[in-house]
Each structure stands twice: as structure tokens, then as C-alpha cells.
Amino acid sequence: xxxxxxxxxxxxxxxxxxxxxxxxxxxxxxxxxxxxxxxxxxxxxxxxxxxxxxxxxxxxxxxxxxxxxxxxxxxxxxxxxxxxxxxxxxxxxxxxxxxxxxxxxxxxxxxxxxxxxxxxxxxxxxxxxxxxxxxxxxxxxxxxxxxxxxxxxxxxxxxxxxxxxxxxxxxxxxxxxxxxxxxxxxxxxxxxxxxxxxxxxxxxxxxxxxxxxxxxxxxxxxxxxxxxxxxxxxx
Length: 235
Known about the structure:
By secondary structure, the protein is an alpha+beta fold.
């Protein structure tokens, strides 16, 4: 048996940024590693240039109880012509160097509406993380500041053989439809499971933080499994 920190992520609106490029920014159907570690850091009061060593050592699993529907929004943004700034290390650096030499364009941003996920965290320092999620230092949101949570995270530390057994002890918001209280997809970091639960799909996500200040991320392998996790309901 192992200890897992489990909690619920529920929001009316969220954005899990896909690979950025050109005029459209899509959204993944579930929160990636960088999104969850960022939320845990915010709960602990860690700034972007703070020490993430303990958080980076954690291993995560995310069960989807409802990924929501896509909503597309239109944004007006500033862009930097290549002729103005060559090979910037970050968008803030490019805007600063360009000064008034910027353009304006309309871009598309995808959001997810009405979703609930269960998260299982394995590693050291789980008790401190649970306390931080109960009384977060910073405001918590899912992907963008306009996407606040709509229910308490209800963090708890449970004993289980693997994330599937751990997330079966999750408590969903009481208004979540009974028909959607069983998760059938689980995404996890590699190495969280033994040979007893085969991998359905192995995919690559570019959400392993390399430099949080410059928004640089590296690829990592993600294991996706077909599961059947029926969660409890909060009272």
C-alpha cells in the first residue's frame, strides 16, 4: 500500500493550453503536469521563480469524470514581427525589445466548460500539500485567471495500492450528475503502476517545465489507461 494525496478539480470554465502557434490556441481535454504543479505551487505560495524541486519530484495521475465541451473565444493580442526581434527567449522579452514596433491581430482561444477531474499525487510532503490546498496562499484557477474553481478541492491522504484504488475514494461535488460519476480514462506519469494494469496508450505531452520564467517545456511520456473508477459524492 502507498499513500496518495487525492483532490477534486471542478470548474465551469478551464483552459489546458495546447501547443501554441499562429492564430489559434487549443485546449487539451485534461490538465497536464505543469497545470497541476502550478496549482500546487500557488496553494503553497511559491512564485514562478521559487524553488520547485519538491514539486517536480512528485508523480501524478488524473482521472476524467467529465472533460466538458469546447467553447471558443476571440482575443485581440499584440504580435512581434520577426524583423523587430529575432529569437526572443520569451514573449515578455520580445514585447520589451520591440517597443512600439508591434502589430495587432485576432486570435482564437479554446476553453473547456463544466468539467470535473480527480487528481492523485504520490511522493514526499503530502501532508503539507493537503494543508495548503485547504487554505491556499494564492488564488487557484484552472489554466487562466478567468477560470476559478467552482467547488472545494477536498484534499485527503489515503492509502491504496495504486491511483485507481486511491481515486475510488474521491468525493465529487454533490451537483455532479450521477451518470457521470464513473471515470473511464486515467492519465498518469510513467512508473506509478505495476504490471497488473496495462497501458492503453502511450503519448507525449510537452508540459514538463524546464524554465518557468521563460515558459520553456520539455516532452514527457504519459500513460493512458482504460479504467472504471466510481467516486463518492461529497455531503
